[in-house]
Amino acid sequence: MSKARLVITAVTVQGRSVAQVARDYGVSRSWIYELLARYRAEGDAAFEARSRRPHSSPTATTPARVELVVTIRARLTGQGLDAGADSIRWHLHHTHGIEISRASVHRILVRQGLVTPEPKKRPKSS
User: Fold this and answer.
1) pLDDT given for residue 69 in this prediction
2) Which distant-in-sequence residues (6+ apart) come within 8 Å of 65 by Cβ?
3) N or C: which end of the chain has fewer CB within 10 A?
4) What is the Cα gyration radius of the chain?
5) How far is CA 125 from the centre of its chain?
6) Per-residue pLDDT reduced to its tens digit, 52-85
């Protein structure tokens, strides 16, 4: 049985006070009030665990910018030029007027599978 179910049952069925339940179970009163409101609105669905992941990420790199980084990488690689994060940043800045961090470019390249990891040290097992 989840702690949320125990807390809601203690308040609604047993009729105990919120302060007493908070003290007995070691949780905050505000969390209990939140659970009670959710239970009244949703019923048994209030007992399910909820994701804490944000609904949106307003500072995320746009898909158009990701596509531009991948396109520049492909063009530079096709010409036999250096296609690292710093080179791509330079081209983005001077050709398109876009400022983006080196870490963001590298992160995009890794997520797109365009970077193959190279270990810096030999593994201990070898």
Assistant:
1) 97
2) 98, 100
3) C
4) 26
5) 34
6) 899 999 989 999 999 999 999 999 999 999 999 9
CB hemisphere CA count around 63 (13 angstroms): 0
The residue that leads in pLDDT, 123 or 25, is 25
Q: What is the pLDDT of residues 46-60, one digit of tens each?
A: 888 888 899 999 989
At which residue do the structure tokens 């250096």 appear? Answer: 82
How far, in whole angstroms, is CA 108 from its chain's centroid? 15
The burial class, CB within 10 Å (0-12 / 13-18 / 19+), for 69 is buried
Burial class (CB in 10 A: 0-12, 13-18, 19+), 104: middle
Domain ranges, ordered by start, for the chain? 3-47, 63-111
Residue with tokens 């800045």: 93
